[in-house]
């Protein structure tokens, strides 16, 4: 499932929009699939956040050193 499909399926369950609009409407084990896919989405997003935070920290350190060199 794509991230957007996972989010749409969660929204359908959350708002009681029923299965008619859900990307998993034809899956008999939709709740199990949605649970697994949701955890995978969260883990991908967590990894991306950590990667971005590391990059930001590295850039902040470079800026700090450049500012110190300029003094």
Task: Characterise the protein shown here.
With 71 residues, the protein is mostly helical. The protein has one domain. Helix content is 76%, strand content 0%. It has 2 helices and no strands. The longest helix is centred in the C-terminal third of the chain and has 41 residues, at 30-70. The radius of gyration is 20 Å and the shape is rod-shaped. The model has no long low-confidence stretch (mean pLDDT 90).
Any low-confidence stretches, pLDDT <50, length ≥5? none
Order of helices and strands: HH
Calculate the mean pLDDT score and round it: 90
Distance between the termini: 53 Å
Which bin fits the share of residues in helices? over 70%
Main sheet record: none
Count of separate DSSP helical elements? 2
What would you call the shape?
A: rod-shaped
Task: Report Rg.
Answer: 20 Å
Secondary-structure-derived class: mainly alpha
Number of domains: 1
Strand % is under 5%
Counting copies of identical and different chains, the oligomeric state is single chain
């Amino acid at each position: 499932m794509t991230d957007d499909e996972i989010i749409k399926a969660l929204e359908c369950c959350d708002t009681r929009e029923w299965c008619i609009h859900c990307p998993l409407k034809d899956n008999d084990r939709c709740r199990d699939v949605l649970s697994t896919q949701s955890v995978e989405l969260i883990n991908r997003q967590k990894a991306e956040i950590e990667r971005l935070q590391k990059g930001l920290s590295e850039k902040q350190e470079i800026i700090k050193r450049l500012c110190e060199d300029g003094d």
